[in-house]
Amino acid sequence: MRIDVLTLFPRMFEMLNDTGIFQRAINSGLVNINIHNIRDYTHDKHHVVDDYPYGGGAGMLLKPEPIFEAVEDIIMKVNPQESVPIILLTPQGIPFSQSAARRLSKHEHLVFICGHYEGVDERVRQYLVSEEISIGDYVLTGGELAAMVVIDSISRLIPGVLGSEYSPENDSHSFGLLEYPQYTRPAEYRGWSVPEVLLSGNHAQIAKWRRRQAIIRTLERRPELIDKSSLNREEQELIEQTQKAETDKDTRVE
C-alpha cells in the first residue's frame, strides 16, 4: 500500500519509519509512506497556507490552492487514471471503526489530509475529499495524530505486516465484540490463578470460554456493540442471565 500524507508538520511522522511493526512493513515493501509539506505547494515567498474566514470569526482556515495542488501532483505522479480515496481528518467526520479500517486496507493507495487551525476551506470538502474521518468526539490541534492512528489501524491489517506470530482476527472490534481476557505466565501470581480451562489444552473448550468471556465483557463495557442476531440461543441466554444478575445486584444495593 502507498500512503501519502499532507501536513504542515512533517516531522511528526518521522517516528513511523523507525518504530516496530511500521519499520518492518516499510523495510519489506508492504507499506510505502510519503509525507508532503503543504507549504511546498504555495507560490508566495512566505509560504502562506492559511487565511481569515469570510464573514468573520475566530481563527484561520487552510487555503484551498496548496491542498488541491498537492493532491493533484501526487495523483499525477503515481497514476492519473486511478481512483484514490482522499481522506480528511476532521472532528466533523464519520467516526472511525474497525470495519472502516478493514475497508480502507483493501486499497493500494490512500491520501490523507491533516486539517489544522479552524479547519479547511469548504471547497476542499466539496470538490476534493472523498471521505472525512474522525477518531472521536473531541478536538485536537491538528489532524496529524488522528492520521497516525488511522494509518496504524489500517496498516496492521495488510497481509504480512504483523507477521505470522501475530493476528488481528481476535482483536477487540474485529468480530463485533471486545476481546476476551488474556493471561500469561506465571499460572498463579499473588494468589490469583489463571482460569483452569486455559491450562487444559482442550482447544474446543478454550474457544468456547473465550467466546463467552468476550460476550460478557462487551455486555459490561460496550453493550451497544452486541448484535443479538449474530448470537446462538445459548449465547443469548448467557446475556439474559448476565443482565438479570446485574439487575438483582442493583436491587440488593438499593
Task: Write up what this structure looks like.
The chain has 254 residues and is of the alpha/beta class. The protein folds into two domains: 2-155, 3-Layer(aba) Sandwich (Alpha/beta knot), CATH 3.40.1280.10; 188-253, Orthogonal Bundle (Trp Operon Repressor, Chain A), CATH 1.10.1270.20. It is 35% helix and 16% strand. The chain has seven helices and nine strands. It has helices at 20-27, 64-78, 98-104, 122-127, 144-155, 203-221, 233-253; strands spanning 2-7, 32-37, 50-51, 61-62, 86-95, 109-114, 131-134, 188-189, 192-193. The strands form three sheets. It has a five-stranded parallel sheet. Strands 3-4 form a two-stranded antiparallel sheet. Helix 1 (20-27) links the parallel strand 1 (2-7) and strand 2. Helix 6 crosses helix 7 (233-253). The chain is elongated. It starts with a strand and ends with a helix. The mean pLDDT is 91.
Can you write the helix and strand succession as a string? EHEEEHEHEHEHEEHH
Class by helix and strand content?
alpha/beta
Shape: elongated
Tell me which CATH architecture of the largest domain applies here: 3-Layer(aba) Sandwich
Measured by DSSP, the beta-strand proportion falls in 15-25%
Write the layout of secondary structure elements.
Layout (H helix, E strand, L loop, with lengths): L1 E6 L12 H8 L4 E6 L12 E2 L9 E2 L1 H15 L7 E10 L2 H7 L4 E6 L7 H6 L3 E4 L9 H12 L32 E2 L2 E2 L9 H19 L11 H21 L1
Parallel strand pairs: 1-2, 1-6, 5-6, 5-7
Antiparallel strand pairs: 3-4, 8-9
